[in-house]
Amino acid sequence: MSEMATDVELHREGPIAFVRLEGADRLNAIGTHTCQSLAAVVREIDGDAGIRAAVVQATGRAFSAGADIEEISGFREAADFARFVKGFTDTLDLIEHSPVPFVAALTGPAFGGGLELAMACDFRVIGRDVRVGLPEAKLGVLPGAGGTQRLPRLVPRGIALELLVLGQPITGARAYELGLANRVGETGEDVLACASELAHALAAGAPLVPQLAKQLLRDTANLSVQDGVVLEREIATALFDSPDGREGFAAFVGKRPPKFSAERP
Predict the structure, then answer these.
(1) Where are the alpha helices (DSSP H) in 9-125?
(2) How confident is the model at residue 246 (pLDDT cuts 50, 70, 90)?
(3) pLDDT digits (tens, 9 = 90+) for 216-239
(4) Which of 8, 104, 139, 167 is buried most deeply by CB count within 10 Å?
(5) Distances (CA, A) of 214 to 95, 102, 135, 149, 209
(6) Is 11 helix (H, G, I), strand (E, B) or coil?
(7) Whole-prediction pTM value?
(8) Which domains, and CATH codes, for the chain?
(9) Is the Cβ–Cβ distance between 107 and 191 less than 8 Å?
(10) How far apart are CA 30 and CA 26, in angstroms?
């Protein structure tokens, strides 16, 4: 591992896991080591039933400038790049399929692979003036870590195509208007506070709800409404028959706050 490679650190505060990119000197560029470290952290989070939500953040002035160009420039063959991209996409798939909801806190710019990482998370909180984008077109290529697939699922297709083929960045305020971000803050401190607040709100609910909501949206993305409703009914019934589902209804009838499980099943 290069001494300059972006590392990934994990620390836990109660039910919340804080995942931090540690590579400020190189704007948190994402290389092979970063992907391997991030994958290990996500697996650790998944294996801890007491973790109910995760916040992804970064040190320094950028969330991430994207893939590690220095590493990529050393690739001699297309197969080298293909291996790198597969490792990157496999890591992002771990986040997308995690039972834990992930919140990306963008206190600084996120370009290319950095934005792809943020889009793999379930929620995004961003600074109003923070710039984000997929600039790969300016290098004569396209994103290879899910950018062409996740972006048009978050914003209108025409907007996604414009961002992909022109490679021009947008501000956090514009990202929020388009639905690319869930919350917007004025300062970095606001963004981190809002991301933490959102994570705690997620952790306070029934743990199966975000897990099965993520699964339901994934599994029905390409189905008709009618077929999607069939799966929705199955999941809604399973939740109703769960201990937390019964507690939720009992608490509502009893006019008291529900006492949901502290850990994921």
Answers:
(1) 32-46, 69-72, 78-97, 113-120
(2) very high
(3) 999 999 999 999 999 999 999 999
(4) 104
(5) 11, 11, 28, 17, 9
(6) strand
(7) 0.96
(8) 7-204 (3.90.226.10), 208-253 (no CATH)
(9) yes
(10) 9
pLDDT value at residue 40: 98
Look at residues 203, 199, 204, 198 and name the one whose alpha carbon lies nearest to residue 183: 198
Q: CA-to-CA distance for 72 and 2, rounded, in angstroms?
A: 13
pLDDT in tens, 77-113: 999 999 999 999 999 999 999 999 999 999 999 999 9
Helices (H), the chain: 32-46, 69-72, 78-97, 113-120, 147-150, 157-166, 172-178, 188-204, 208-219, 225-240, 243-253
- Band the pLDDT of 1: cuts 50, 70, 90: very low
Which residue type does 169 have? P
